[in-house]
Write a structure and sequence with these properties.
Helix content: 55-70%
Strand order of the largest sheet: 1-2-3-4
Number of helices: 4
Radius of gyration: 49 Å
Distance between the termini: 143 Å
Largest sheet: 4 strands, antiparallel
Strand content: 15-25%
Low-confidence stretches: none
Order of helices and strands: HHHHEEEE
Mean pLDDT: 79
Length: 156
């Protein structure tokens, strides 16, 4: 019986040795951990930072463009109100009537030889000698402009 136990133990040991040698050469690679983010690993970090900077810049420009577009929309809406259109129409009619009266005074049947009027702070003096009409425009700072128009060629 003692002999049987020794043979059984030797059988187990022999099996263990056979199993170990039958596995052959065991090989494994080194396990490495690498960060995927360039902020941690340092690989490609400058390109990563440039990409972030470009995204921030693009977003700021987009916000500026949106604010500018909104301001322009508000200005358009303010100019397109009923009151704004009425004022523009009224101003246009006043200027047309003023222009008609000036033409009548300078070239009409009861024309005047000279005169003056003030338009938006600018003084306009006009005179005619029968052949030419001279306009002398003086601005608010004292600068002067003189325009001379021959009467014979002033037709529509």
């Amino acid at each position: 019986m003692g002999h049987v136990v020794v043979v059984a133990c030797m059988g187990v040991i022999l099996m263990f040795v056979v199993v170990v040698f039958s596995l052959g050469n065991a090989s494994a690679d080194e396990m490495l951990f690498k960060f995927k983010s360039p902020s941690f690993s340092g690989n490609g970090v400058s390109a990563h930072y440039l990409t972030i900077e470009n995204q921030e810049h693009s977003r700021k420009e987009t916000i500026k463009e949106e604010v500018q577009a909104y301001k322009e929309e508000l200005a358009r809406d303010a100019n397109n109100t009923t009151l704004a259109r009425f004022i523009r129409n009224l101003e246009s009619r006043i200027y047309a009537e003023l222009s008609r009266q000036l033409v009548d005074n300078m070239f009409g049947e009861t024309k005047s030889e000279s005169g003056s009027f003030t338009l938006e702070g600018n003084k306009v003096d006009y005179s005619t000698d029968g052949s030419f009409v001279s306009l002398k425009i003086t601005d608010t700072e004292g600068g002067q402009t003189t325009i001379t128009v021959p009467i014979g060629s002033f037709t529509f």
